[in-house]
């Protein structure tokens, strides 16, 4: 499973000699790509060719070319495979598939519009990336050699945007218009139609089109039914505007390779929060967004004390408040009240009841997620000048307005060194010195990316150059634990994980201190305030002393991203997650694929035929084990963590609530729980029939099983009028009050829903 390209492995990638023996013609470029990509297994090669390899222009195809082609069309889940062009006509190529279920069939006729021609091998791509990033160094040849070596060894793995976009010509000029940043948070929309559409929507679409994901905090927007003096009307509310952003997200193809990725968040005090919590149960609502609730410390205190929680907003009926509102309202209610400004309480709720609704929704469909935003800001190194307002779409990167982060990962699986073998299987040690060296290299690499990438907006550039935020993460943790025979949940495994991430954090910070000596500290650095952050208070004294004496180059250094695509590409476990299972099926934008973890084959089974105890899958872990693992790593992560706590299908709402509260108490900055089978579409499954279920899935409100008492917060517009047959159950009649007479479908009468 190693990706060491200096010592290539035999894989299931189609070999040139085998294809030639079948009588296929291959161009020189096709031969070069296949000969220099044998470190990747079949699925990894498809991912690389589709997502990250530089592509030819549309008119640059010829017989014998290797192409990525849609072998099975589907509006949401088209299956992609690799093939060789054997002939063509005006509109179509005849392609002999060389991967997937059609590879031994006769050539397929596929539209030329559904084919892409990659121009580089994985070896070429890493060489390209190393050269591009090193171009920002004063000694580019020295650092090109170092960066490329670490890339080819598989020690560092850049995030997808860097893999796809980093490229310079012979003069060192950047040749791409794609962003090298995965993560963006744009300012919360101003509370006006002009700002919502002209500013925020435009900013979001521009970032999507260049490959970045976006987070938006909607808490600045006035609640539903709030009076709008200028037009003598009422607001449709923050959630409805969030749906506008969601719909626009579905239209964008990011940098030509992936759909837009959007995170929408709302604060726990906002009057629309109950509607937001239930929003994903509406048909066609927020389909293209992840959603999370920003949970404050006062709210959690109210939950524990079973206290009343006010849902409030600046008092827009007050003349003085209205004057201040236009210039000072930024979505921070607590700061607004601290200044003595007025608010209007729209509703008082029991905090525990609202918490219960949130948990029930998460139990039902894994959303909304939760971000403990006060804890996040208390721990933040930028607490004194740049508050964090939202996270990126996967939740691992909390950012300020106009904040960005570029991500790179340490492939931990490539730091294990085989030392022998016993009756169970291979034995390994961990190469700590190689890890420390690679960590330092990754910090410098990502710091150079800051100066290499093009900036979409000047505000992004000013913000990032003033703080130089980076995120060094990991992938392959689960593989490492298996190879070292450490069982997740055992004390020995926990101690190893703590040592591992402490080592990464300490060496990342010391590398950034060294960069500060060489290139200067980040512009917003103020030593006394920086050292007072919650995170820095917990760092070892030698790190604090070095920062105090020399400064530091980057405001943040560590994060734990999901690495789903790049982890799958290089054939190891993703992020800090355990393997989902050791044989499972995966639904992705490349189609439906069976995944088998080869690692299993290297070890003898126990006498009863079961796997060794150190083979622990996501569903084998106890729910609290997931949280404990996250909390252990959070201790040494200055940003946050993308981690899912997998729980069985019979896990109860009460158990889910206790697990969320356990995450808060153990210092996690956020949490997402997925109950097996809780969604009609299942991306990972041990059941092959999931492919058919996913393809046939058409979400309905009835399937969402929204409780009758929650309908007051639901607005669905189907285009049907009062008195028509319900478009969901086909039995009931749509009525103005109460929705369908037979099922939970919301009223869809012309002009909008008015179920209140």
Structural class: alpha+beta
Give the overall shape: globular
Subunit arrangement of the protein: single chain
Low-confidence stretches: 698-722, 747-756
What is the C-level CATH assignment of the largest domain?
A: Alpha Beta
Largest sheet properties: 10 strands, mixed
Number of domains: 4
The CATH architecture of the largest domain can be named as Alpha-Beta Barrel
Annotation field: number of helices: 26
Distance between the termini: 58 Å
According to CATH, what is the topology of the largest domain? Answer: Anaerobic Ribonucleotide-triphosphate Reductase Large Chain
Give the strand content.
15-25%
- Mean pLDDT reading: 88
Helix content: 25-40%
- Number of DSSP E strands: 30
- For the CA atoms, what is the radius of gyration? 26 Å
Question: Can you walk through the features of this model?
Answer:
- The chain is α+β, with helices and mostly antiparallel strands and 756 residues long.
- The chain folds into four domains: 16-123, no CATH class; 132-182 and 408-698, Anaerobic Ribonucleotide-triphosphate Reductase Large Chain (Alpha-Beta Barrel), CATH 3.20.70.20; 183-391, Anaerobic Ribonucleotide-triphosphate Reductase Large Chain, CATH 3.20.70.20; 701-740, no CATH class.
- Helices cover 35% and strands 18% of the residues.
- It contains 26 helices and 30 strands.
- The strands form nine sheets. Strands 6, 7, 8, 13, 14, 17, 20, 23, 26 and 27 form a ten-stranded mixed β-sheet that branches.
- The radius of gyration is 26 Å and the shape is globular.
- Mean pLDDT is 88; it is low at 698-722 and 747-756.
